[in-house]
Amino acid sequence: MQTINLTRHFLIAMPAMADPNFSRTLTFVCEHNERGALGIVVNRPIEVTLGTLFRQVDIAFEHSPVAEQPVFYGGPVQFDHGFVLHRPVGSWKSTLPVGDTGLTTSLDILEAMAEGRGPAEQIVVLGYAGWGPGQIEDEIQRNGWLTVEADLDVVFAIPPEDRYDAALKMLGVNAAFLSDEAGHA
Q1: Confidence bin at 15 (pLDDT 50/70/90)
Q2: Whole-structure pTM over 0.85, yes or no?
Q3: Bridge-partner residues for 104, per DSSP?
Q4: How do the domains of the chain map onto residue ranges?
C-alpha cells in the first residue's frame, strides 16, 4: 500500500546506490501511483547534442538556438526513446502534465524547438527510469534514495553538474557527510 505520492519529487541517489545507472543521480518523478513510478534522470548529460538528435530523426534546423544543447541520459528503460521535460506545459500531442511542467514524447515539440518555437525551459532525455508497484518505496526504505519535493528551477536554472548537490541542499544535506549505512531509531 502506497503511503506517499512521489509525483513531482526528486529522488536523490544515496552513496550506497549499487546500480551504476543511478549512481549520484538526481531523478525527477513524473508519475507515481499504484502501478509503480516513472521518472527521468536530470543531471547526466551524454555526448549527444540536440542538433545531432534533430539530424537522426530528420528534423530540419538551421541556426537553431538549442542545437548545441546536450541531450541527457533519462534512465535505462527505452533508451532509444526521447522525452522532453519542459515548462510551460503547452499543447503538444503527447504530454503528461506534472504540475506546471510537462513530459512530452511527440515529435512536434522537437520540431518546434528546432524552429525556435519550443518551450521556454526544457531538457531532452533518452530513456526513463521505471519502478513496479512498491519497488521505489522499498528502495527508499533500504536507504537507496532521499526524497524532496522538486523545485524545477534546479533542473532548468542550474548547470547539470551542480543539480545533485543543489537538491541535497534543499534538504540541508552536504554530500560529503552522506553515509552509505542505513540507520533506524
Answers
A1: confident
A2: yes
A3: 84, 95
A4: 9-177
β-strand 77-87 against 121-131: which pairing, if any?
Answer: antiparallel
Q: Which residue has the cell 525556435?
A: 116
Q: Say whether pLDDT at 18 is over 50.
A: yes
Q: What is the pLDDT of residues 80-121, one digit of tens each?
A: 899 999 998 888 889 999 988 999 999 999 999 998 889 989
Write out the DSSP string of 108-162. Answer: HHHHHHHTT-S-SEEEEEEEEEEE-TTHHHHHHHTTSEEEEE--THHHHHS-HHH
Taking the C-alpha atoms of residue 176 and residue 15, their distance in angstroms, rounded to an integer, is: 10
CATH superfamily membership of 9-177:
VC0467-like (3.40.1740.10)
Query: What residue type is 19 in one-letter code?
Result: D
DSSP label of 169: H
**Cβ atoms within 10 A of the Cβ of 62, count?**
7
End-to-end C-alpha distance for the chain, whole angstroms: 23
Residues 6+ apart with CB under 8 A from 184: none
